[in-house]
């Protein structure tokens, strides 16, 4: 087999996010899609900088994962809309909602890439300018969004190797 094509993966990500996460938020948070950015192959990978990042890892056919990252106010808005509850602080309900949303997006990517992609349970990392460390040889595609509560992005990051 061959390496994954970055433009094909960008299309998979766009459709995965559109077909899953956006269906939850069409009317609830006034979501609008923004640009899609594919990291140039010669640049090192930089993890997201945000107040809240939900992470689901990939193993098997695809090594890497999915980030959903947002500033605090946008994450709270997403968590409220997704859970159907009024959330005004980062609590267990908010973290569970963001983790599950990321898990749904990761599952959609898995479904479109290969059944031999395995997902880790969601983890949520919080804190202003928190740091998530990864190898620098990862490729990534980011899809940016705006909502009534602020911006967020979904990123698929992976090792582009012969598969």
In short:
The chain has 163 residues and is α+β, with helices and mostly antiparallel strands. The protein is built from four helices and seven strands. The model has no long low-confidence stretch (mean pLDDT 81).
What does this protein structure show overall?
The protein is of the alpha+beta class and 163 residues long. It has one domain (6-39, 47-135, 142-158): Chemotaxis protein chec, CATH 3.40.1550.10. The chain is 33% helix and 29% strand. The protein contains 4 helices and 7 strands; from the N terminus they run ααβββααββββ. It has helices spanning 6-19, 21-25, 72-83, 92-113, and strands at 32-38, 52-60, 64-70, 117-119, 123-126, 139-147, 150-158. Strands 1, 2, 3, 4, 5, 6 and 7 form a 7-stranded antiparallel beta sheet that branches. α3 (72-83) crosses α4. The radius of gyration is 15 Å and the shape is globular. The model has no long low-confidence stretch (mean pLDDT 81).
The residue-averaged pLDDT reads 81
- Stretches where pLDDT falls below 50 for ≥5 residues? none
Counting helices, strands and paired strands, the structural category is alpha+beta
Top CATH class: Alpha Beta
Sum up the overall morphology in one term.
Answer: globular
CATH superfamily annotation: CheC-like
């Amino acid at each position: 087999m061959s390496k994954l094509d970055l433009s094909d993966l960008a299309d998979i990500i766009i459709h995965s996010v559109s077909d899953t996460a956006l269906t939850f938020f069409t009317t609830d948070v006034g979501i609008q899609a923004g640009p899609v950015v594919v990291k140039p192959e010669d640049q090192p990978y930089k993890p997201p900088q945000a107040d809240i990042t939900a992470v689901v890892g990939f193993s098997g056919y695809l090594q890497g994962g999915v980030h959903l990252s947002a500033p605090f106010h946008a994450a709270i808005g997403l968590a409220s809309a997704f859970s159907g509850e009024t959330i005004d602080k980062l609590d267990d309900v908010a973290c569970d909602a963001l983790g599950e949303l990321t898990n749904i997006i990761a599952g959609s990517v898995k479904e479109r890439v290969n059944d031999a992609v395995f997902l880790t349970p969601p983890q949520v990392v919080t804190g202003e300018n928190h740091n998530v460390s990864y190898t620098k040889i990862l490729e990534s595609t980011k899809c940016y969004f705006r909502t009534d509560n602020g911006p967020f992005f979904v990123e698929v990051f992976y090792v582009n190797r012969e598969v």
